[in-house]
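Predicting holo structure, heme C bound.
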Amino acid sequence: MKKILILVFVALLMVACSNDSSETTQSPAPASKPAENTVQRATDAVQQAADQVVEKGQELKDEAAQYVDKASDTVTAKAEELQAGAEKLVQQGSDRLAALAPAAATFDKGSSIYQQSCRSCHDSGIMGAPRLGDERYSADLDVLVENSIKGIGRMPARGGNRNLSDDDVRAAVEYMVEESK
Ligand code: HEC
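Done. Tokens:
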């Protein structure tokens, strides 16, 4: 039994060897066709890979362009936001100045009236006139103005200057009150 198996095995081996030798002894002409195919396939594969690389490159380029677009949109929006904020601040600043202007003007007016018509007594405190900083100036403003217009004690009406309007006297009193704080 074993012998038969060995014989079959040897026979198979011989067939196999003869096939091998028949392939190697074949002329190279028929082998060139598969070789050409292989080269063609390799070329196609390289071409395909190159196409894919170009395609991927274009995709990446488009994507990058989108990011740049988005970034510049964000920068533009942020810049506009900042500009709007700055404009608002400038507006607020000039609004505040505009609101302060009348008070400043009244203060200037009151100051110059005080220099002209009131300081002769109130700087020195002559005849018992309360000097700037006196606590009497912390009394109710309307009462102080009324007394200054009518005159009080030894102070003549409007400080003796009949040309001053009620508003002029009020401005002077406001200045004195402000300077006494
Ligand atoms: C001739 C001096 C004299 C002049 C000028 C004068 N005052 Fe007087 N003033 C006095 C005297 C004196 C008193 C204090 C009166 C008293 O005893 O209550 C006084 C008091 C005041 C008081 C305090 C009033 C109160 O209710 O307590 C005010 C305010 C005042 N003067 C404003 C002015 C103003 C404003 C002017 C300028 C337009 C002015 N005075 C000019 C003499 C003067």
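The radius of gyration is 55 Å.
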